[in-house]
Design brief:
Distance between the termini: 25 Å
Number of strands: 5
Largest sheet: 5 strands, mixed
Shape: globular
CATH topology: Alpha-Beta Plaits
CATH class: Alpha Beta
Strand content: 35-45%
Number of domains: 1
Order of helices and strands: EHEEHEE
Helix content: 25-40%
Length: about 90
């Protein structure tokens, strides 16, 4: 399993981005969380296979209807992540 941390930029708050990210991650079988950041971005921390994470990042580059994603920065996540499913961190 691989771990990533991604930051999504653009119009991504107030458009259901966290909810839809959670739904997509659960469909893909990815564990982790998604949360809004004070600077208007959305942070995703995810654990899964390379293929699962690639699919989640491809989705994040589009986002749900109403979102306007301008950039997604992803990097390996070095934390010792132990997640029970995928959640929205508030």
């Amino acid at each position: 399993m691989e771990q990533i941390r991604a930051v999504v930029y653009g119009v991504v708050q107030g458009v259901g981005f966290r909810y839809h990210t959670c739904q997509m991650a659960q469909q893909l079988g990815v564990a982790g969380f998604v949360r809004n950041q004070p600077n208007g971005t959305v942070e995703i921390v995810a654990v899964g296979t390379r293929e699962q994470l690639k699919a989640l990042l491809q989705w994040a580059n589009q986002g749900p209807a109403g979102a306007r994603v301008t950039q997604v920065e992803a990097e390996p996540y070095g934390g010792s992540a132990q997640f029970d499913g995928f959640t929205i961190d508030r």
